[in-house]
Amino acid sequence: MLPRKRRRFYAVNYKPTDFVEKEYVDIVTLYTLRIIIDLGGHKEFIDRYNDLTK
């Protein structure tokens, strides 16, 4: 069996309203960022010099 190709999602291809109703975009964004910070996920994007990494 051949491995499946991973679909890559790029933020430039989507609008927030593609996934969430317009009136909920702000609150969903807030809670998503809170979850990322609480779980330490921000360390994957910000290096020790406070620069964003790829």
Features:
mainly alpha, 1 helix, 54 residues
Descriptive account of the structure:
With 54 residues, the chain is an all-alpha fold. The protein has a domain at 11-44. It is 26% helix and 0% strand. The chain has one helix and no strands. It has one helix at 25-38. The radius of gyration is 15 Å and the shape is extended. The N and C termini lie far apart (32 Å). The model has no long low-confidence stretch (mean pLDDT 78).
Offer a quick outline of the entry.
With 54 residues, this protein is mainly α. It is built from 1 helix and no strands.
List the helices and strands and how they pair.
Layout: H1 25-38
Task: Let me know the largest β-sheet.
Answer: none
Determine Rg (CA atoms, Å): 15 Å
As a percent range, the share of helical residues equals: 25-40%
- Annotation, overall tally of beta strands: 0
Low-confidence stretches: none
- Give the termini distance in whole angstroms: 32 Å
Beta fraction: under 5%
Strand/helix succession: H
Query: What structural class do the secondary elements suggest?
Result: mainly alpha
pLDDT average, as an integer?
78
Identify the overall geometry: extended
- Helix count? 1
